[in-house]
Amino acid sequence: MRERILIQLSGADRPGLTAGIMGQLAAYDVTILDISQSVIHNDLSLGFLLAIPPQHESSPVLKDVLFWAHNQGLTLKFSPIGADEYEHWVGGQGRKKHIITVLGRSITAAHLAALGRVIADNGLSIDCITRLSGRVSLAEPLDMPRSCLEFSVRGTPPDSTAMRAAFLDLSREHGIDIGFQEDNAFRRIRRLVCFDMDSTLIQAEVIDELAKRAGVGERVAAITERAMRGELDFSQSLRERVKLLAGLQTSVLEDVAQTLPMTEGAERLIRTLKSLGYTIAILSGGFTYFGKRLQERLGIDYVYANELETAGGVLTGGLVGDIVDGPGKARLLQAIAAKEHISLAQVIAVGDGANDLPMLDVAGLGIAFHAKPVVRQGAGQAISNMGLDGVLYFLGLRDRETMDQRAGHEG
Q1: Is the pLDDT assigned to residue 251 strictly greater than 80?
Q2: Predicted confidence (pLDDT) per residue in 260-315, tens digit
Q3: Which positions are catalytic?
Q4: Domain boundaries defined on the chain
Q5: Using one digit for the tens of pLDDT, what is the confidence trace for 378-396?
Q6: Alpha helices per DSSP H over 92-199
Q7: The listed CATH number (3.30.70.260, 3.30.230.10, 2.30.30.240, 3.40.50.150) that belongs to domain 95-183
Q8: Is the dihedral angle over the CA atoms 332, 334, 336, 338 positive or is it negative?
Q9: C-alpha span between 74 and 17 (Å, rounded)
């Protein structure tokens, strides 16, 4: 009968420690059943579960390991594992695994205490915690810091909807964002990202900016707000708003395009996605003129939006062709995925308005970005406290793997 021993090693980290202790064990032909290692601020924690073959007893093995650890200035603890306990552990490997992503400007003990209670209340167990954000200097703090931890948890919550609602409550209360995804192969092989434009890639609603130039800003903004909350039919409200722009000089389009601010993290996100080979699309209820400008600036692959009708150098107050509304966005997302031979499970959709919900629903990963409550509740995931580059953390990417190497965010 093989003996099973759990060994836990801790102390100051330095090169060669793992090789050293494994060299001690190799002489006894032991089998490594499980192993995990982490280093926090140069302090090593190494644990491994080993099986000692029948021809060897545990005493000489542990004696050699203890002697080696003492000479290295390390602390060693070992525990025998019974056969029933070990087989129960093996039997648990079929349980589903999920990823919980926690991101914010900073993460405190209060945040993790609240999160931990929700995890425990839903019968989930934490297997591993990984820091995805880079190291942060306290001597020279960043203006817009990022902090992210990824939890690998095992088990299936009894009510996923209730748990997501609890996460949304934590998000509102603590100013952090919490994502919850099944840990499957698709999470690591996304290939297409579809973005809304207004109030997502850019920090403005273009139609509101045009309306200000046309002297109808308050009237249009009121309609826009109601449409984004889902209180008005999008297509009807868009035609109503565009009609109010009749007579506006087309030269104003360029003036507005020059002043549109990019959303925090948008350019970093797009650069990183493009470097990793992602296909990028803009699916917007806004206007093609501005989508094309972003396409040129960021290297976007597809742009679908609404075409303003012009005549004699002014806007007529009408639109050309079909309107890109909520259902239209979902259809376009599916069409692009089919053209690129990409499974919908590999598609990410990001938007802020009620007209984005259909595409958020059909995508494998739908993210509501700084969205109205109805959109946050309807989407699978939400980012409300970070920049758009927070999407990268939902993909499991570390800061050092992205197209940004700012001081304090390198690993």
Answers
A1: yes
A2: 999 999 999 999 999 999 999 999 999 999 999 999 999 999 999 999 999 999 99
A3: 196, 198
A4: 3-91, 95-183, 192-379
A5: 898 999 999 999 999 999 9
A6: 109-121, 160-174
A7: 3.30.70.260
A8: negative
A9: 10
Is the domain covering 192-379 a CATH 3.90.640.10 domain? no
CB 387 within 8 A of CB 394: no
Check: CB of residue 116 under 8 Å from CB of residue 380.
no
**Residue 159 CB-density burial (10 A; 0-12 exposed, 13-18 middle, 19+ buried):** exposed
Tell me, yes or no, if the two domains 95-183 and 192-379 fold the same way. no
Q: How far apart are CA 4 and CA 82, in angstroms?
A: 7
- E strand or H helix at 154: strand 147-154
Which residues have C-beta within 8 Å of that of residue 316, sequence separation ≥ 6?
246, 309, 310
pLDDT bin (cut points 50, 70, 90) of residue 408 is very low
What does the DSSP assignment read for 267-321? Answer: HHHHHHHHHTT-EEEEEEEEEHHHHHHHHHHHT-SEEEEEEEEEETTEEEEEEES
Q: H or E element: which one contains 289?
A: helix 288-298
Rounded CA-CA distance 370/387 in Å is: 9
Overall average pLDDT of the 156-179 stretch: 94
**Structural tokens at position 65:** 């390991």
Beta partners for residue 99, in sequence order? 152, 181
pTM metric for this prediction: 0.89
- Superfamily name and number for 3-91: ACT domain (3.30.70.260)
62 token code pair: 């542990």
Amino acid 35 reads I
Total length of the chain: 411
